[in-house]
Amino acid sequence: MLVDSPPPPTAAPEAAPRRRAAAHAVGLLAATGVLLLVVAASIAVGAKQIPLDQVWHGLFHYTGNSTDVVVRDVRVPRTLLGVLAGTALGLAGTVMQALTRNPLADPGLFGINAGASAAVVSGISFLGVTSLTGYVWFAFLGAAVVSVVVYALGGSRGATPVRLALAGTAVTAALNGYVYSVQLMDSAALDRMRFWTVGSLASADSTVVTQVAPFVAVGVVVALALARPLNAMALGDDQARALGTRLTTTRVLALGSVTLLCGAATAACGPIVFVGLMVPHVVRSFTGSDLRWVLPYAAILSPVLLLGSDIVGRVVVRPSELQAGIVTALIGGPLFIHLVRRRRMAQL
Fold first, then answer.
1. Which of 75, 132, 179, 233 is a good FRET partner for 210, with 20 to 30 A between their CA atoms?
2. pLDDT value for 346
3. CA gap 66, 58 in Å, rounded
4. Residue 299: which of 125, 87, 111, 155 has the closest Cα?
């Protein structure tokens, strides 16, 4: 009598998540490699053509000649600032989208960039602020105030993605009008602000990088630490409470991290839009919605986008430069229209 043999053992249920985690980890290493390549390209490529051997000499055998100065004192700080600002904007956008459960959320679209810009313009025009340290604190104040105002106008606890987007659009329009008015009335402020307002890495130096880095570092740590509670909030407030998430604390910390990240990046580079909108969507297309992976990927790929845009701006109109904020806007505008027109986005 034949007895049926038992079916072969199936893989443990935990095997698939482990494989996905391993794939994501490998992908994260690959993304880091891409970032390093873009960093190297940002140092090697610019409006002024410098042979690679002279770039190497400027990095490791600095003698103070004009080429070494361009490489060490101009391109390296510019590249480091691009990494810091890109990471800050990408994480800020990711946290905003998770906090509001709105896939179209972005610090620029929600008025936070405009608030930081308005505060910086006010400090320059009315108080004579000229140092980056002053810019940072004014930018923080403006970003914090506007984030609270938009959240209140959007309905506070009853806020919906549509209400928040409309409130952010209205506040952004009003603040942009204020910024332009101040610049028209104050020609000195206009002269100091005309490159800052379009978003640029061109004014970077070692002092700027040193002053901005601590604020970005704190914002990055807070944002990454919020991955689990924000994952829980994605299930709804009731489910999040049942899982032990402190909703008010999470919201306050999330807004604080966005304020730190966006305020520092805006103070140093000016308002650069769409970085925080584009990168999270690209990341979620291959990682899913788990913020434990989305946040690290966004922190790495966002500076790739910003530095890549800066490199393009330096090359396409040589010997002049096209500001990085203009390039990201040219890329991000069509993408935003595409996202809005997608049916599943419109139904959120």
1. 179
2. 40
3. 9
4. 87
Which among 151, 152, 135, 175 has a CA at the least distance from the CA of 254?
A: 151
d(CA 139, CA 202): 19
Instruction: Supply the pLDDT for residue 262.
Output: 87
**Do residues 325 and 273 make contact, with C-beta atoms less than 8 angstroms apart?**
yes
Q: Rounded to an integer, what distance in angstroms lies between the CA atom of residue 47 and that of residue 45?
A: 7
Give me the DSSP letters along 9-35: PPPPTTHHHHHHHHHHHHHHHHHHHHH
Q: Is the pTM of this model over 0.90?
A: no
Tokens coding 252: 């306050």
Q: How far is CA 178 from CA 63, 110, 133, in A?
A: 47, 17, 23
Helix ranges (H only) for the chain are 15-44, 52-60, 66-69, 76-100, 112-127, 132-153, 161-185, 187-193, 206-225, 227-233, 237-242, 247-269, 275-287, 291-316, 324-341, 343-346
Length of the chain counted residue by residue: 348
* C-alpha–C-alpha distance, residues 126 and 123, integer Å: 6
Residue-wise pLDDT tens digits, 207-243: 889 888 999 999 999 999 999 999 998 888 788 888 8
Cα angle 133-139-142, degrees, rounded to a multiple of 5: 145
Which of 82-91, 123-132, 187-196, 298-307 has the lowest average pLDDT? 187-196
Tokens of 268: 């140093």
Rounded to an integer, what distance in angstroms lies between the CA atom of residue 322 and that of residue 230?
37
Does the pLDDT of residue 2 top 90, yes or no? no
Angle 310-111-225 from CA coordinates, rounded to 5° = 75
CA-closest candidate to residue 92, choices 277, 232, 234: 277
Contact 340, 103 (CB under 8 A): no
pLDDT per residue as tens digits for the range 42-101 = 999 887 788 888 888 888 878 878 888 888 888 999 999 999 999 999 999 999 888 878
285: its two tokens: 């297309």
Angle (deg, nearest 10), helices 275-287 and 291-316? 130
DSSP 7: P
Instruction: Name the residue type at position 306.
Output: L
Largest alpha-carbon pair distance within the chain? 99
